[in-house]
Amino acid sequence: MKKSLFLLAFWLMVWATYAQSNLRGVVKSATGEELVGANVILVGTGRGSTSDLSGNFQIRNIPSGTYTLRVSYLGYESQVKEVSVPTDLVLEIFLTPSALLTEEFIVYATRATDLTPTTFSKVSKRDISRLNLGQDIPILLNFTPSVVSFSDAGAGVGYTGLRIRGSDQTRINVTVNGIPLNDAESHGVFWVNMPDFASSVDNIQIQRGVGTSTNGAATFGASLNIQTDTRQDEAYAEIDNSFGSFNTRRHMVKVGTGLINNRWAFDGRLSRIASDGYIDRASSDLRSYFLSGGYYGEKHVVKLNVFAGAEVTYQAWEGVPENLLATNRTFNPYTYDNQVDDYKQDHYQLIYTGTFGKNWKANAALHYTYGRGFFEQFRPNDRLNRYGLPPVVVGETSISRMDIIRRRWLDNDFYGGVFSMNYISDDGRLDAVLGGGINRYDGDHFGEIIWMQFAGNTNIRDRYYDNVAVKDDANIYAKATYQLTDRLFAYGDLQGRWIDYRFDGINNDLRDVTGQVKFAFFNPKFGFTYQVAEGKQWYASYAVANREPVRRDFTDSPIIERAPKHENLQNIEAGFKRQSANFSYNANIYYMKYRDQLVLTGQLNDVGAYVRDNVDDSYRLGIELDGAYRLTEKFTIGGNLALSRNKIAEFLEYLDDYSTAEFRQEVIVHQNTDIAFSPNVVGAAILDYKPVKNLEISLLNKYVGRQFLDNTQNEARSLNAFWTSDLRFNYALRPRFVKNMEVTVLVNNIFNRLYEPNGYTFSYFLPGEGVSGRELVTENFFYPQAGTNFLAGIKFLF
């Protein structure tokens, strides 16, 4: 009897083992489009899967029986159905759009659509997550068309930046959920203030050229329109850790409640990133969080986003002198232990979007950003008169120079509101948007001496300069797409923008900068889109943008005596788009004609600071190509190429002349020269290989042509062309104890190229031999990027 029972138990175990089955299927929309990343769960079993790039899913090792299968996807109604296992059927799950209002309209007003006649790319959450191991957004966008990215510390953590079509960050408009992000005064975006923000981004649209009307700083070369994470219907938790070269590490925790009572959802993220940097002492200690909560009704959504970042970054701003590149590429002139940039920034966004009847949608948002911080500097043997201080008398000795430590502070508030209203006609031929915003910036700039080598008649926290700036920026735009025929669409976009900028106080060079400037701009845009067939279209557009000077253009120049003029850009875009199941490409040409572009010329103001001046005539002319092709089920190849010509008709260079007893500046006229930091060739090539299921290997290549450091087109003042290659491994597993586990390894610069994507230069005359009795000295400084280095991360999704 015992033997019989044992054999029976053994047989039942074997039978149960062999009775394990797999369940396979595909998730599609009602129109047949494969849905990537849909959640598929066997209710009550703890087993589940997510759909892959082809919409396919598979749940393994399921005991025989009848189960409830739940399939959900953002923006679609969840579907529940009974399934029996085992089965040989490949399930087809079709999801219909959700009755709940989605969040896409939050960014709709400031984005281009498929029918907008302008040049743009979209970077999805999946594209971002495959590279996101803690590096900043400029590094993650490095392989998109016409982009050149760089890092002060050389490894993508800390101060980073990017240029698009040669336009730097001050000419690239950035919005987050339609809300301006650019600093109102410098027009820059300091990504270091938003550590690990990419982990809370759903998608980014990059418009090149003037693009469509938006809020905030002028789009004067490109725009980045960022949408943060949208609602997740299912509860989730995510833990993400990565480590790499230069003691780089990132730790992130992210949680979400999913949809509660079919109406409420809450999400949160907490991140910490640290790195020693490639450059000596270029360390970063970064912290951030992102909180979001919202009400999701059938016709209305109300959402609150609160996110903040805090950074302490050792300064690597000076770059490496050219003469040290061959022997000490990691040189940093700063050695004082607290030579840091210390800044905090908090963002608050209250967003509403809703539908009114079948034709109208509306969006409105209130926002507030609070920033405060300083950078600290040790200044050896500095002049006291630079701080408005008399010499310090010790006994009979008068000391006018000494070591000091100073802090320069910025304490600012930025707040306002944006809105948009969208009307779509009953027949769908007219899609019109009315939108705009009004914002105020209030910034306090001041400096302190916190230590002196010899005690003087000053107290700690005494301010040696203090000035306040208030900037009001208002805009309104109306844009519409109208279907003229079955295939032809007309587009129009009119924007008015008004700026009132007021200064009051003493600047850091002890000059009174009190004054006021006002601007009123009209920015029209129009174009046509022609759909040749499904997935094929031509487009062409003409757009105008106007841009006010930045803060330094006013504070470095007397506003009344020598006020800089605003810049003007006229932009023509034309292209062709092709989209099919296995093949897609875009081809476009552009012409960007500038009037009164502001550039550094070497000219000095009355206290010896370099100022920018307007140049009458300059332009950018180029061709851009990008596309991807699925060669087989395992191989996909993609890339982009930009060829351009970027010229200034006439440029006046001012050179300091120290060859005589009396200082002077010599003026040299240059004609038809290349615009600084505008390579004629920028390209990327990406090869993706999937040798087995859930493993993806990618080879990422980037080429950037020669860049000139100034507008003289002098090769002695330039950055060499470079080619880099990175290797990325992504492997996804689905162990029973988590919903998904993903391992990513990124090996950057696998061929150990020595390259520098950024730098600066200045030249001057010194006494020397020759007929003129002088010699020209040029000093170049570069920001070297790291050789071969790696980052590796592991992500758990629950």
UniProtKB/TrEMBL annotation:
InterPro entries: Beta-barrel_TonB, Beta-barrel_TonB_sf, CarboxyPept-like_regulatory, Plug_dom, Plug_dom_sf, TonB-dep_rcpt-like. Keywords: Cell outer membrane, Ion transport, Iron, Iron transport, Membrane, Receptor, Signal, TonB box, Transmembrane, Transmembrane beta strand, Transport. Residues 328-750 form the TonB-dependent receptor-like beta-barrel domain. SUPFAM superfamilies: Carboxypeptidase regulatory domain-like, Porins. It is a multi-pass membrane protein. Residues 1-19 form the signal peptide. This is Iron complex outermembrane receptor protein. It comes from Cecembia calidifontis. The lineage of its organism: Bacteria, Pseudomonadati, Bacteroidota, Cytophagia, Cytophagales.
